[in-house]
Amino acid sequence: MKKINFYENARKILSNPTVVEAVQKATMHALEKRRQTIARIPDFEELRDKARTAKEEILRDFDGYLEKFKENARKNGFVIHEAGDAREAREIILQIFKERNVKLAVSSKSMTQEEIEINPFLEAHGIKKYETDLGEFIIQIAHQKPSHITAPAIHLTRREIARLFNEKLGMEYTEEPEELTKFARNYLRKKYFEADAGMSGANFLIADTGSFVVVENEGNARMSTTLPPLHVAVTGIEKLIPSIKDLPVFLKILAPSSTGQHQTVYTNIFSQASKDHEVHIVLIENGRRRMLNDPVLREALMCIRCGGCSNVCPIFQLVGGHAYGSVYSGPIGIIWTYAIFGPDVAKELPFASTLCGACYEICPVRINIPRILLELRRRVIERTGGKLEEKALVGLWSQLMTKPVLNKLGFHLASKIQGIFKKDDKLTHLPFVFSNWTKWKDIEPFPGKSFRELWKERKNS
Amino acid sequence: MERTEKFIEELKRNDVEVYLTSRSSLNEDLNEFFKKQGIKRVFVRPRGLVNQLSPDIEFTEKFDEDVDAGLSEADFGIAYSGGLVELAESPSDKLPSLLPDIHIALLKESNILDDFDVLFENIPHPLPDITFIVGPSKTADIEKILVKGAHGPRRVIVFIVR
Ligand code: SF4
Fold first, then answer.
1. Considering A290, A322, A344, which residue would you say is the last residue of a domain?
2. Minimal-distance CA residue of chain A relative to B127
3. What per-residue string of b and e applies to A225-239 under the rule 16 or more CB within 10 Å gives b?
4. How many Cβ atoms from other residues are within 10 Å of residue B106's Cβ?
5. Closest by Cα among A409, A315, A415 to A357
6. CATH number among 3.40.50.10420, 3.30.70.120, 3.50.50.60, 3.90.190.10, domain B2-161
7. Which residues pair with A128 in a beta bridge?
């Protein structure tokens, strides 16, 4: 992968007010819904602690739990495949498909599938794979990439989608979301029945039962995993949780942190396979073991991909997912991109953060993202020999941010965020970040102090 | 019962239509419902409560274009989420709650549980496939505008049987 030019990407996006507005709308919508939902879950903080503890337990004995999962999954009749990297994963999937003469596949949303870039690969081998999540379907026919983890097509307006459906799929032109959805529904209905294989990701791998879990709202994952005779689930090895008894805790924190829903419409727990309905699980390592062995990065393996940190991030709110130039965007996406695609590709990314701490605050499993970002900054600077690079990056950043329009926009967003969080939440310092851009520029991108010390200082200043 | 009330409250929050009935009036209530809604052909996987029905409509075990609704018996209800729990021994067990535009679920009141925890403590091993259903299928992928009936049912109706 080539080096990601975050600043260049960001500048391009910022010149498109429609995208900026759409991203704002999506993130604010999710945050507001989250606030309302969490008010109905009195033990939400305890649930976060419990989820954190369960994920810490996984990291304590990662290989033990992975072995246990594989053993139990095999007992369930699942066929387990292991891929060291993306290329291996693609070959494994192709092999499974070739052996069963698969020509047409349907798939529910999976970031891991995006990570291994399976679609163009299958296409090159004569296998057509349809994305069935509406947002993913839209961007697939638009030949674009997802801009938000839970709202992949949020950067497109209904007019653009209407034109797309009209031109590419021959639908009579209408901008009615209801009609557009119905059209996609009927279009994909046929595909589910015709498909030789269904694909999915996995939100959780349950060690003590060998089960895996897929959550969704549309029913497309249910269709993709039920109707075709073959189900191939592609997942990173970090999705482990120790026991099915831990699942309630995760189900209770995931949807509220993600879309702000209390629960997703469908939670699918798979524990069965048969001759007529084969289930294969492709476990992907692709850099995760490196993360596991890295004292700072390993914490990021706890991520349950809720997207909450993106929603709350003032930078993400401004520029959206495309600026990050990677399948994984937003604050945690910076860390994953760095870990998977390497420091040369991702060297600008750790600087695309205000270190305001909002991501840490919202993360349901309490990943200290700013601390990791600071460490990544340190590593980038060390690798590139220091000063010059550092100055260049900060320079780019301030160039982007000092434009009066952006300042205003930033401030506007920040005050919205302030309204969203209760007063006793620690986030009331957020607008500070925006009203003090000039001050911010004076702050060292990598101070010799811990994040907490820095935080305190900034609060007192 | 407090648990049932909580369950119903959550169901309604999830846009599920709720009817309370008893074993003896289930047939009558269902027939009335079918009639009112113009439902003539119903896709089922017969078992449990469903086997005891004698409806004025046509039951079919094969899904086709003419099916008006799907009927299933939910194994449990979860009061915490207003969720229906379906256990499936094979993928085809999952279809009545998935393919038709309208999904009607029967649920014994005694199978309403407070929370997920109770379910996972009591579920038999080896596990069947488990689906939680929380309202009609939906999407907000176009400009965040909510549309019901994305790929699955547009309407979900529950008959709680006392
Ligand atoms: S880091 Fe935390 S908030 Fe961000 S996506 Fe992962 S779990 Fe969610």
1. A290
2. A271
3. bbbbbbbbbbbbbbb
4. 21
5. A315
6. 3.40.50.10420
7. A104
Would you write out chain A's pLDDT as a tens digit for each of its 461 residues? 889 999 999 999 988 888 888 888 889 999 999 999 999 999 999 999 999 999 999 999 999 999 999 999 999 999 999 999 999 999 999 999 999 999 999 999 999 999 999 999 999 999 999 999 999 999 999 999 888 888 889 889 999 999 999 999 999 999 999 999 999 999 999 999 999 999 999 999 999 999 999 999 999 999 999 999 999 999 999 999 999 999 999 999 999 999 999 999 999 999 999 999 999 999 999 999 999 999 999 999 999 999 999 999 999 999 999 999 999 999 999 999 999 999 999 999 999 999 999 999 999 999 999 999 999 999 999 887 765 455 556 656 565 555 544 554 554 454 444 443 333 433 333 333 333 333 333 333 333 444 445 455 555 54
Name which of A219, A225, A270 is nearest B150 (Cβ-Cβ): A219
For residue A178, the CA-to-ligand 1 centroid distance in Å is 31
Closest atom of ligand 1 to A308 CA is: 3
Q: Phi, psi (5° rounding) for residue A459?
A: -65, -40
Chain B CB contacts of A72 below 8 Å: none
B55 part of contact set with chain A, CB < 8 Å: no
What's the token pair of residue A100? 């069963």
Provide the residue ranges of all domains of chain B, joining segments of one domain with +: 2-161
Q: Is A306 in the pocket of ligand 1 (CB under 6 A)?
A: yes
Complex ipTM: 0.97
Q: Whose CA is nearest to atom 8 of ligand 1?
A: A306
Write down the pTM of the prediction: 0.89
Residues 6+ away with beta carbon under 8 Å from A107 = A113, A129, A130, A131, A132, A198, A199, A200, A224
Nearest Cα residue to atom 2 of ligand 1 = A363
Distance from CA of A308 to the nearest CA of B (A): 16
